[in-house]
Amino acid sequence: MKTRAAVLQAIGRPQPYAESRPLVVEELVLDPPGAGEVLVEIKAAGLCHSDLSVINGDRPRPTPMALGHEAAGIVRELGPGVTDLAPGDHVVLVFVPSCGHCVACMEGRPALCEPGAAANVAGNLLSGTKKLRRADGPVHHHMGVSAFAELAVVSRNSCVRIDPELPLEEAALFGCAVLTGVGAVVNTARVVPGQSVAVVGLGGVGLNAVLGARLAGARRIVALDLVDDKLALARQLGATDTFNAGDADCAQTVRDATAGGVDLALEMAGSVKAMELAWQVTRRGGTTVTAGLPHPDHRFPLPQVALVGEERTVKGSYIGSCVPIRDVPRYVELYRQGRLPVDRLLSERVRLDELNEAFDRLASGRTIRQVLVV
Length: 374
Description:
The chain has helices at about 15-20, 50-55, 105, 115-120, 170, 175-190, 205-215, 230-235, 250-255, 270-280, 305-310, 325-335, 355-365; strands spanning about 1-10, 25-30, 35-45, 65, 70-80, 90-95, 130-135, 135-140, 150-155, 160, 195-200, 220-225, 240-245, 260-265, 280-290, 315, 345-350, 370-374. It is of the alpha/beta class.
């Protein structure tokens, strides 16, 4: 069968992407689903900083690659052995297909699935195969999903079935932004009612962390970003305090306002500067969590003595330390109850042929969550 998809030709092309055109919409051959795989008609896909990190080279991946990893769609065909889904089911796609058998999966940490991670780095599906090709050879998959397309073949383990009444444009956000942001608060940081929380970086993931902190009962939610419009939105979503991260004395201002710092600070921008700020606004005995993905060569200069002298903790959070089959339905139900208003983060709808311009907007930091509507 054939599908139109946005293919990244080479990483590291200069901005503006509207001129350098790193993404080209092509018609590709898509092989049918094999054993344990599913054909999904993509209906919506979010534009995430993780996609941008592949485009700009911060997350090196093999090319050509069909991008897109945060998505929702409708099951159209089942491969051999898939018996718990049916054509017509609505699904959210999760970008680490957990095998269920490695040590991480058996420990209840499917976000760290070892075969899933290896397949993603290689640009393969969990089965080790590639389903996309063009005349000059195969096209790599992005995170086992490749959602900037009309159709995608994915592992069954990449699919979480959802209520068909949930609009698919909103459902797509649950595949990454919600899982990562809310999950970092409730699963990784384990915020409990009455604690104070800071969120550094207010993109789609960071604002979901603000929503998660409010949901968890944080008494004080401090939001930090370089863009005043994002700070204003954070206040509307539940932040009790906002500070512009570009101010020279920002860290000290936050510490003064919070009597020495917050209990838990979350870095969501994917930069060393943001991580340093998150560390600086964390109190003695507190925890700093990072869910950002900077370039692999970047280093955070951790003051080691503070880990002992102040009993500080630093933790990483990948996909919000989530268990997708458990967390996606929970978060969807909270959204439907009005307690997790993730729909307010949807900023623009774009088409396949508008993706380069949309990634310029994302790179500028002036947008929250753009969604490709296929």
